[in-house]
Amino acid sequence: MTVTGATLVTGATGTTGSRTAAALIAAGHRVKAASRRAARLPGAEPVRFDWYDPATFGDALLGAERVYLVPPVGDPDPAAVMLPFLHRARTAGVHRAVLLSSSAISEGGPGAGAVHQALRGLFGHWAVLRPSWFMQNFTGTHAHARSIREDAVILTAAGSGRVGFVDAEDIAAVAARALTAARAPNADLILTGPEALSYDDIAAVVTEVTGRRVTHRHLTCEQLRDRLAASMPLEFAALLAGMDRAIARGAENRTTDTVQRLTGRPPHSFRTVAERELTRRR
Ligand SMILES: NC(=O)c1ccc[n+]([C@@H]2O[C@H](COP(=O)([O-])OP(=O)(O)OC[C@H]3O[C@@H](n4cnc5c(N)ncnc54)[C@H](OP(=O)(O)O)[C@@H]3O)[C@@H](O)[C@H]2O)c1
Prior knowledge:
Order of helices and strands: EHEEHEHEHEHEEHEEHEHHHH
Strand order of the largest sheet: 3-2-1-4-5-6-9
Shape: globular
Low-confidence stretches: none
Bound molecules: NADP nicotinamide-adenine-dinucleotide phosphate
Radius of gyration: 19 Å
Distance between the termini: 45 Å
Number of helices: 11
Structural class: alpha/beta
Strand content: 15-25%
Number of strands: 11
Mean pLDDT: 96
C-alpha cells in the first residue's frame, strides 16, 4: 500500500506525539502536528487542535488518512470528546487510527478503555498501544524527574514491585509502524522495555549515570495518596497511589516482544535512555 495522505498526530508537543511525528517525518511521511499550542516540528505542518473545541476538528482532519490519538490529559472520561471526533474523522476519510492507552487499562476499562473498545468498530485498520510506564518519567517533566533533580529521591508506594519501563522512542517507533505498515496490527499491543526493573534498580542506574546518589523512598499507599492530593483532586491521587499498590503486587512485572516484533530491533534499556537523556542535562 502506498502512503499518500497525511497522518494527523495529536499530542504532537508531548512525550510520545513529538517522537511519533519525528519518526514518521524521518520515514518520509506527511505529518500534521496537532496540539493547542502550535507544534513547531521540523518538516511537519502545525495545526491548532483542542479536544474540547470541535471547531478545530475540520482543519485538523483536512487531508488526513491516519491519526495518532493521545487522549486529553487528566480527563477521567476521554471518550466523551474523542468518540464524536472519531466519527467525524471516519466521515472525513481517515481509515487508520492508533490510540495511545496504557498497560494498566484494558479494553472497556476506565479512561481510554472506552475509546479502545470503540476503535475496532470505527476503523478497518487500527491499533491500541498499551505501554508500560515511560522511562522518560525519570528524565523529562514528570514528578519523578523533578524530585530526582530537586531532592535526589524517587517517592513511590510500589515497594519492590517491578515495571517493564519503556522508552518513548520505542513507543514512537511502534506507533509509526502501526500507522504506516501495509498491514495494520488490528490488535492491542502491550509495550515494554527489555527488562522489568524495581524503583530501587532505577535509582541505582540514575546514581551510576549521573554520579549523584539518588534513592528510592518507600511510602505506604496512604502516604503517597496524601502527598499527591496536595497538587491534584483526592480521587485522582488515590487512583495513582492504587496503581503503585498494583505494581507492588506484581501487576507490571513482565516484558513483551512487541517492540522487537514491530520494529525489527530490540527495545532500549533504561541505562541507554538515562545515558542519552540525563548526561546531556549536566
Ligand atoms: N507516563 C507514563 O508512564 C505513561 C504510561 C502509560 C501510558 N501513559 C499515557 O500517556 C498519555 C500521555 O501521553 P504523552 O506522554 O505522549 O503526552 P504528554 O507528554 O502528557 O503531552 C500531552 C499532549 O497532549 C496535548 N494536549 C493536552 N491537552 C489537550 C487538549 N485539550 N486538546 C488537544 N491536545 C491537548 C499537549 O499539547 P498542548 O498542551 O500544546 O495542547 C501535549 O502535546 C496519557 O494518556 C497516559 O495515560 C503514560
